[in-house]
Structure formats: structure tokens, C-alpha cells
Amino acid sequence: MPAPNAFDYAIIRVVPRVERDEFINAGVIVHCPTRDFLEARVWLDEARLKALFPAIDVADVRAHLEVFPRIAAGDVTAGPIAQLPRSQRFHWLVAPRSTMLQTSPVHAGMAHAPDDVVGQLMASFVLPTL
Questions:
Q1: Is residue 94 one of the residues assigned to a domain?
Q2: Which of 12, 51, 72, 82 is the most exposed place for a label (fewest CB within 10 A)?
Q3: How far apart (Å, rounded) are the C-alpha atoms in residues 45 and 49?
């Protein structure tokens, strides 16, 4: 079996009221340079978001969230940031910001298959638990 590869990841968060520092996890970004891998995956629990933040425009949040995977994939329709080299796209996606969509600090890990890591992180941090 080949050696595991180092990867970095961050959790995408919806922070409706930045001054309150409350958030809901809504996605993950995984970058593994040795495997030329960058993926962002999002999932929004709309009912939970509305329950916690009734005045929020869910459609607006969803529209902005959906840009993360497109930038990660280098989709030309996602604007000039999506045309940057893979590592620069990752650093742009995880850069600290004071907006409604933020990312956690970047964390590191090791894995044989970074694409499997995306699903594992989504299950651990974003998707509802049973």
C-alpha cells in the first residue's frame, strides 16, 4: 500500500451575525497537493438555519455557498479566483474573513485517499447525526 498523503482541510461555516460568533457548519474544503486534489463540498440544513436565525435569506446563503465547490473545481463560470492555480484557490477559499460565510482554521491530516476524507469530514462535521 502506498504511503499516506498529507492534506489540509477547513470547515465552511454560516455565521449570520458575525458579532455573536454563532455558526452552523455547512461544508468542507480538502486540499492534498501531492495528489493534485482540491474539493469543496457543501450541504445546508435549511430548517436548522431558519430555526436559529429566522430572518436569514436562505436562498442567498445557498447561492453563496454553492460557489465554494465551483471555485475549488476551477469552474470558469465561478470567476477569476477559480482560474488561479489549485494551491492559490485553496488559500483564497480558507482565508480569514468577517462575512456571513467563513472557514474554520486550517487543520492537517494524513490519508491514502483524500476524496474519501471529504465524505468522512462531511459526515463528522456537517451532515446531521442519526
A1: yes
A2: 51
A3: 6
What's the structural domain count of the chain? 1
Q: Are 118 and 39 in contact (CB under 8 A)?
A: yes
For the segment 79-110, what is each residue's pLDDT rounded down to a tens digit? 999 999 999 999 999 999 888 999 999 999 99
Contacts of 38 (CB under 8 A, 6+ apart): 29, 30, 31, 32, 72, 73, 86, 89, 90
38 part of a folded domain: yes
pTM as predicted: 0.94
* Domain assignment of residue 40, yes or no: yes
CB 30 within 8 A of CB 121: yes
Total residues found in the chain within this entry: 130
Name the stretches of the chain with pLDDT < 70. 1, 130
